[in-house]
Design goal:
Length: about 190
Amino acid sequence: MDSKDHRFRRLNQEIRNCQRCRLAESRTYALCGEGDTNARLMLIAQAPGDTEDQENRMFIGPSGGVLDILLSTAGVSRDALYMTNLVKCRLPDYRRPKQDEIEACSDYLDREISLVDPEVLVPLGYYATRHMLRSMNHSDPESRSDIAELFGTIIPTERGQLYPLPHPASLIYHEDYWPVTQERYRKLKEFV
């Protein structure tokens, strides 16, 4: 029988070799998810940044520093999580992901979710949250502000619970978001 480890190795090899969209031309690495493959909690970010693309690691750039503070405040270790991205390759000039790029990677994300089988999916930010709501046939909020209103809310779905949160990068640009964001991240401890 095909072991979970073997299926992850095969999936990660596919991700590393992916040529499904234009992003393959400008990336250094197609970033695979990392962490506990048996985690109860899966974080889904938007895409790797420049530092992550160079080092082939999740959340090690400026957003990673913010995430570490948020997790530490919540009393949650990175080792207790599985982290991945909606889009597996760096987006040039930190632009927004295009729908065809999201669709090109969506099969990889679906397979990661199936393999990890977490109890709680935690999409970070607008694009990851919108994608997860759509993929679960949940009502799709009209605007960014509608999605922002869902941050910190538990949404039951047929695939488990969805707990959308703001992306850590938002705190780099909006320091006034820290108190409410830290409070929302503290709830992660309950899920771990």
